[in-house]
């Protein structure tokens, strides 16, 4: 599967997302000079459609609103240097979905708050490019879904020594699906603070990760890995303080670990389900880094229900 579709597919998807909204489409900069101004005027069901450009502001999205880039990754939101670049509040209608779609989001600082932070359990982050923002590239955390949410078809890159995905509330559910996670050199991949939290990590490709750490400040915390490719990495677990390491369920994943330690270092609570393989996933040599699988890849057709592994 390719990370993002072709021009026709993208155009059709944009028409569907914008056209299906129950409310009004507010355009930036044609009608509103900034994303902030458009969001201040937006109501439940409204869509803020953003043209190409660099926006040094924090996009604060209340529940029931959608922010979408007209062109894929054309709207480049970089924050104001002091807050999360994109913040989703709970407001008075916390059950209403909030969507961030097709934008490029990057930190304007090398050390700072979350790139994307949400208090809404029904947040959807889709088709976005999320980048680190400085020579040190320490952003903690990158995507902070306090009450849970969905991250789908995103490319997260250039983030070193970070917490990539984090939840904090009890019972939080995170779904990370069809994403490419690149240049994650060392840090926490998934972390939960709230008791009885659950994360589903499905159809993702983790590229060049020295260590992908699952950590827990909660009990219990379960992570289910399905149909992923972990290339050049080691999966680790850690329970902080009195908390136990997360419980991992691994099914239909391809692991190519670094030869440093056990590929599941310090993960006492893990279950090896069916279909896991260890070895070279055999990516094609693609300078565009789309991570196509070679026709002879062991990851083709060997995932759950005959799917390919990875994104």
Give a summary of the structure in a few sentences:
This protein has 311 residues and is mostly beta strands.
Detailed description of the structure:
The protein has 311 residues and is mainly β. It has a single domain (7-277), classed as Pectate Lyase C-like (3 Solenoid). It is built from two helices and 32 strands. The strands form four sheets. The chain has an eleven-stranded parallel sheet with strand order 1-2-5-8-12-16-19-22-25-28-31, with helices on one face. The chain has a ten-stranded parallel sheet with strand order 3-6-9-13-17-20-23-26-29-32, with no helix packed on it. A nine-stranded parallel sheet has the order 4-7-11-15-18-21-24-27-30. The protein is globular and about 55 Å long. Mean pLDDT is 80; it is low at 1-21. This is Right handed beta helix domain-containing protein. Keywords: Signal. Residues 1-21 form the signal peptide. InterPro entries: Pectin_lyas_fold, Pectin_lyase_fold/virulence.
Describe the secondary-structure layout.
Layout: H1 7-19, E1 25-28, H2 35-41, E2 47-50, E3 53-55, E4 59-61, E5 66-69, E6 75-77, E7 86-88, E8 98-101, E9 104-106, E10 111-112, E11 116-118, E12 123-126, E13 129-131, E14 138-139, E15 143-145, E16 148-152, E17 155-157, E18 163-167, E19 173-177, E20 180-182, E21 186-192, E22 197-202, E23 205-207, E24 211-216, E25 221-226, E26 229-233, E27 235-239, E28 247-251, E29 254-257, E30 264-265, E31 270-272, E32 277-278
Parallel strand pairs: 1-2, 2-5, 3-6, 4-7, 5-8, 6-9, 7-11, 8-12, 9-13, 10-14, 11-15, 12-16, 13-17, 15-18, 16-19, 17-20, 18-21, 19-22, 20-23, 21-24, 22-25, 23-26, 24-27, 25-28, 26-29, 27-30, 28-31, 29-32
Signal peptide: 1-21
Keywords: Signal
Organism: Eiseniibacteriota bacterium
């Amino acid at each position: 599967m390719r990370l993002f579709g072709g021009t026709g597919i993208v155009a059709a998807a944009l028409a569907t997302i914008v056209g299906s909204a129950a409310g009004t489409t507010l355009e930036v900069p044609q009608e509103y000079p900034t994303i902030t101004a458009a969001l201040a005027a937006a109501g439940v069901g409204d869509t803020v459609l953003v043209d190409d450009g660099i926006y040094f502001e924090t996009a604060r999205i209340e529940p029931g609103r959608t922010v979408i880039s007209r062109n894929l990754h054309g709207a480049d939101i970089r924050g104001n240097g002091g807050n999360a670049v994109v913040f989703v509040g709970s407001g008075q209608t916390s059950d209403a979905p909030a969507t961030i779609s097709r934008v490029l989001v990057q930190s304007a600082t090398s050390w700072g708050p979350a790139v994307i932070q949400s208090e809404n359990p029904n947040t959807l982050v889709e088709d976005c490019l999320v980048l680190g923002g400085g020579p040190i590239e320490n952003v903690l955390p990158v995507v902070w879904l306090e009450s849970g949410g969905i991250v789908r078809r995103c490319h997260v890159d250039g983030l070193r020594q970070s917490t990539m995905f984090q939840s904090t509330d009890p019972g939080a559910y995170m779904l990370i699906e069809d994403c490419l996670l690149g240049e994650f050199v060392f840090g926490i991949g998934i972390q939960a603070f709230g008791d009885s939290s659950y994360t589903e990590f499905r159809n993702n490709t983790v590229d060049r990760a020295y260590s992908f750490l699952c950590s827990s400040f909660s009990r219990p915390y379960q992570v289910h890995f399905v149909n992923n490719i972990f290339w050049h990495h080691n999966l680790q677990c850690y329970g902080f303080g009195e908390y136990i390491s997360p419980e991992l369920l691994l099914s239909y994943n391809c692991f190519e670990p670094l030869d440093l330690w056990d590929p599941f270092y310090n993960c006492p609570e893990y279950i090896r389900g069916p279909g896991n393989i260890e070895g070279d996933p055999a990516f094609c040599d693609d300078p565009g880094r789309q991570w196509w699988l070679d026709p002879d890849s062991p990851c083709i057709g060997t995932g759950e229900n005959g799917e390919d592994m990875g994104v």
